[in-house]
Amino acid sequence: MKRCDFDLPFLLRYENVAWYENGKVRILDRRIYPTEIRFVECASYREVAKAIADMVTQSAGPYTAAGMGMALAAFEVKDKDAESQRAFLKQASYDIAHARPTTANRMSIVTEGCLKAAEEALSAGKNVIEAIFNRTIDSLNRRYGTMEKVGEYLASLFPKGGTVLTQCFGETIVGMMLRAAKKTGNALKLYCAETRPYLQGARLTSSCCYEMGFDTTVITDNMVAYAMQKKGIDVFTSAADTIARSGHIANKIGTFQIAILAKHFGIPYFVTGIPDADKMTMRDIVIEERDPSLVLSSGGRVNTLPGVKGIYPSFDITPPHLISGVVTDKGVFTPYTLNDYFNTKADEYY
């Protein structure tokens, strides 16, 4: 089986993201990694959808979990007639795709691709579970292969021995940009903003950077201006959960304010990802609001008096005038020329 996860850190290897086997889906619990390596085991596709909604896996991890969850859904109805299987899988596709609203459009591409594979298998009298599983592996290879191109373009923008600030956890792109930098012998220094309240930058991004041999420093979210002013940050980069054609991007809450600081200090901000064909402007972006209790506590310990309120928007929207470039598999675009991305045929991504 061809795999594109070679030489990548532990949490980016396929089996350590999400994996279907013998009627179960195993998902690495990124809420506690690397302090503890624990997998959440799901016995139904609804448990997979709940794990996605509960942030067991984050960044692009849900796309892998979605495909594996569809294989599990097929296992749940393997003894039913063809029409019952079709109906069940269609419902599973919707439920899994809509586990988190901001990325429902991308997740739907994943689950609907699994539906297509299931239909072809049913029509040919083949094993539906195997067809969906294989389709998910193919999707992983496509996504990792596409992100490898993005990573190489991004790494080419970094100065030799430069210092790069990251935000949240860009999943595959983190591994791919570092793999590309290692290939060219660029000994980067990485500063990772911690990314409250789940600390993806501190726990996930810094783990990948350190495991791949790079000089890695974690800063709290309110140290960004100081780091830019005093620590020689050359480039700020992040992935994006949504990239609208207008050049507006949605990414983990806090990205907008870091972009403002980068503009103030004259530091380029490069966004990575594939533009969304169906998102025209920022009005098409849905911002998910999560349980505010996560903001009122840290490490399971409540920090506020009873009655104090919190808010937890998962994402914010950064406008195009703060973005230096959008790095894609087709090269680097300005945020104002993203429509040009669609002038040529794009390889299937999900």
Q: Would you mind describing this structure in some detail?
A:
- The chain is of the alpha/beta class.
- It has helices at 45-53, 61-76, 82-97, 104-124, 128-155, 172-183, 200-211, 224-230, 255-265, and strands at 18-21, 24-28, 39-42, 163-166, 189-193, 215-219, 235-239, 242-243, 249-252, 269-272, 297-298, 301-302, 315-318, 325-328, 331-333.
- It is 38% helix and 16% strand.
- It starts with 17 loop residues before the first strand and ends in a 17-residue tail after the last strand.
Largest sheet features: 7 strands, mixed
Poorly predicted regions are none
**Rg:** 20 Å
- End-to-end distance: 18 Å
The assigned structural class equals alpha/beta
Shape: globular
The ordered H/E elements are: EEEHHHHHEHEHEHEEEHEEEEEE
Q: On the 0-100 scale, what is the average pLDDT? A: 96
Strand content: 15-25%
Instruction: List how many beta strands DSSP finds.
Output: 15
Strands in their spatial order, largest beta sheet: 6-5-4-7-10-14-15
Number of separate helices: 9
Helix content: 25-40%
